[in-house]
Amino acid sequence: MSSGQRIIFHVDMDAFFVSVEELSNPSLKGKAVVVGGQRDERGVVSAASYEARKFGVHSAMPLRTAAKLCPHAIFLDGHPDLYRESSQKARAVLQNFSPAVEMASIDEAYVDMTGTEKLHGPPLKSAHKLHQQMKEKTGLNCSVGIGSSRLMAKICSDQAKPNGVLYIVPGMEQSFLAPLDVGRIPGVGKVTKAQLNQMGILRIGDLLRVEPSVLEDNFGKWGVALAGKARGEDAGGWFEDEVGADWQAKSISHEHTFAQDTRDVEKIESTLAHLSEMVGRRLRESNFSARTLQLKLRYSDFSTMTRAHSVPRPTQVDTEIFAAISKLFHDNWERGRAVRLLGVHASNFQDAPEQMDLLGVDEKQRKWTQALSATDRLRDKYGESAVFLAKGMAGTFRERVHENPAEKPGKPKQ
Amino acid sequence: MEISVSKQDLLKELTATQGVVERKTTIPILSNFLFEAAGDKLSITATDLDLSLRTNCPAKIKKEGSCTIPARKLYDYVKLLGDGEISIKLLENHWVQIRSGRSNTKMVGMARANFPALPLFPAESAIKLPAQVIRNLIAKTIFSISSEESRYTLNGALLVLKPESITMVATDGHRLAHVEHVNSKLPVSGEMKVLVPKKAMSELSSLLSSLLNSSDVQVVEFAKDESTLFFRLGSRILTSRQLTGQFPNYEAVLPRDNNKSVTIHCDEFSGAIQRVAQFADERSNAIRMRLEKDELKVSTSNTEIGESEDSIETSYNGDPMVIGFNSQYLLEFLKVVGTGDVRFEFKDAQSAGQLRPDEATDSEYKYRYIVMPMRI
């Protein structure tokens, strides 16, 4: 924040998954809708409509709990491909307003609007324009938070929901934040909040009345950052980055929870193959090649392990991903122990210049990539189940996505 | 066994065998030398099971026999002894006494029976190869050998013997060094191909250097059986396990339609690359080469360190092009070529480039180096 006043927008789509569902089925409007699976299934809620939220349903809650809280809700499996498509449309709209757009997750983004006044007018006017364009191009509502930092923008958009705009003019940050619950600060979860409450810190303003050294003693560097945050500054961690400086995804992953725990190797392998395919597809979509592949394995007693492997050549090829993941599984699975959940995670994306191969290994990978891109196009046209790797056939299942991936600070959970 | 040997003679042979002794072995006997005394010679053997060296030196034998002695310890100890005669005597329980002047040491050896048996040199099938040529072939290829253990057949170089030529090829999958010596006359019928492991090549190379420097022997006798390669240099015999498996079809990757070329002075080129490479990405060592009319620009840029460019005057007049390379790959080749001009031939930024010393300066050897570009 070296020079001048920054203007950051945080644009958050309102009840994103549910709204996308409503677009294709308008009869859902105004009803209690839960996306993530059927009422009697294992797994968790991906998103809930405002109507369902009134009954206490929130994302990440087990589907069966949601069914108890809100028995009349309509339960939907969801359409991840539609959500991604809408997300891309929303991003295109944002990019009309500023080149510095950072998608924090599928349904929210930071936009650095600093210096766009001449083009779009003052913040509130451009936010109004953004609102209109978003509705026009995507058919969806969004909420816009405006502030002098990401943190302010993020907290504002939350206060602005649904379908609103909130702008805290520079200088007013501290007085706006002071009465809010400390849990509103992105990154302050249940545990930190409980610790802060014990110290007598209930509201954000209380943070400024405590000696910084006390915060540091209790929370380390994060404690010092907290005081900065209470003044509305982007202090500490990911919030310090420039908007758009590192907007690219850092990892891509897919997980699957079995309807019934299994120790059937065939079934596990075909599930891993299918997850590998899904990860491969997303990699190709974003044109990334991953160096690190990671397996997540959860047993029926919920004990969970992750094991990673770095491949010599970055890949986006399904079969190469599956080969690495399958080996990780066989090296680490305690044979005979029932598996509840499997996950495939790709990260450490290729950025450095890449040495080409002389002896035709590249050629093989290039041909695979070509073939897979062709299958991607078939899936685009005929749906996700149009083509599968033979191995993954038996492991097909519905894809689930979440509005707030774990890697990035999401909406403050209450 | 009881013998007496001059320190100079012994040290010379111990030095030559040091490279073969396995350092981090889990088989203790492989850290030992085998000493065998017979006639008027002491023969010394070291092995790591893959590679073995057997050599000898003159000695006064009071009592024939054999023993094993910890190799590193003996070498370090003998280096510290004064010039003169050293007497070596096998005691009870495999202990070995080493005496020289007023120094007296007893070392703990191991049973001779534990030392692995080595295959014998099949003298009748041996082919004489020119020592200097073999040394040159090794120097021109060894740096391209892969050190990735998973690419097993690339962990050595392919040696091809024909009646009129000796060829050596090495590749790590990203670049390939190919050198052919054309004026040879060898008693082979047709073609003989063997894969020589990298460690055998580097050991052979250092043995050749000391041979060419210190004696009038100018040939290497080469022989093989199903699993072993033999190289005899005077009184020293190097034996190596053969690498088995299929060496890649390298002829298929030799570029045939590289239609752009530039001739550059070796020193000038390597100087430019070295300077610019200081600012290359450390993991990839990537540099960018831009060919324009009458000019070759070598450059790097790195957001964390800075950027650098060198420009070399050339007679290039083809289409402008930009191509990325691993600077280390280019430097390793240029270092071996040393002086004179090199020709760099390209097709496009996705196809292999070829480097050759300018024909006139190096006619006995046909040397070419193929290197794949980097995507930059």
Q: Please give the count of helices of chain B.
A: 6
Structural class of chain A: alpha+beta
Shape label of chain A: globular
For the largest beta-sheet of chain B, the strand count, sense and barrel status come to: 8 strands, antiparallel
- The helix content of chain A is 25-40%
Describe this structure in words.
The complex is a heterodimer of chains A (414) and B (376). Chain A has 414 residues and is α+β, with helices and mostly antiparallel strands. Chain A folds into four domains: 8-15 and 81-171, Alpha-Beta Plaits, CATH 3.30.70.270; 19-77, 3-Layer(aba) Sandwich (MutS, DNA mismatch repair protein, domain I), CATH 3.40.1170.60; 175-230, 5' to 3' exonuclease, C-terminal subdomain (DNA polymerase, domain 1); 251-395, 2-Layer Sandwich (Dna Ligase, domain 1), CATH 3.30.1490. Helices cover 38% and strands 19% of the residues of chain A. Chain A has helices at residues 16-24, 50-53, 63-69, 80-95, 117-120, 123-138, 150-160, 173-177, 190-198, 212-219, 221-230, 265-286, 318-332, 361-382, and strands spanning 8-13, 33-35, 47-48, 74-76, 101-105, 108-112, 142-147, 165-167, 251-262, 290-299, 304-315, 339-349, 354-355. The longest helix of chain A is centred in the middle third of the chain and has 22 residues, at 265-286. The two termini of chain A are 30 Å apart. In chain B, helix 1 runs antiparallel to helix 2 (71-80), helix 3 (131-141) crosses helix 4 and helix 5 runs antiparallel to helix 6 (327-337). By secondary structure, chain B is of the alpha+beta class. Chain B has helices at 7-17, 71-80, 131-141, 198-214, 266-277, 327-337; strands at residues 2-6, 32-38, 41-47, 51-58, 60-63, 65-70, 85-90, 95-100, 103-108, 127-130, 156-162, 165-171, 175-181, 192-197, 219-224, 228-233, 236-241, 260-265, 286-292, 295-302, 306-313, 321-326, 341-346, 353-357, 365-371, 374-375. The longest helix of chain B has 17 residues, at 198-214. Chain B is elongated, with a radius of gyration of 25 Å. Chain B has three domains: 2-114, DNA Polymerase III, subunit A, domain 2 (DNA Polymerase III, Chain A, domain 2, Roll); 123-251, Roll (DNA Polymerase III, Chain A, domain 2); 255-371, DNA Polymerase III, subunit A, domain 2 (DNA Polymerase III, Chain A, domain 2), CATH 3.10.150. Chains A and B meet through strand 13 of A and strand 26 of B. Strand 13 (354-355) of chain A pairs antiparallel with strand 26 of chain B, so a sheet runs across the interface.
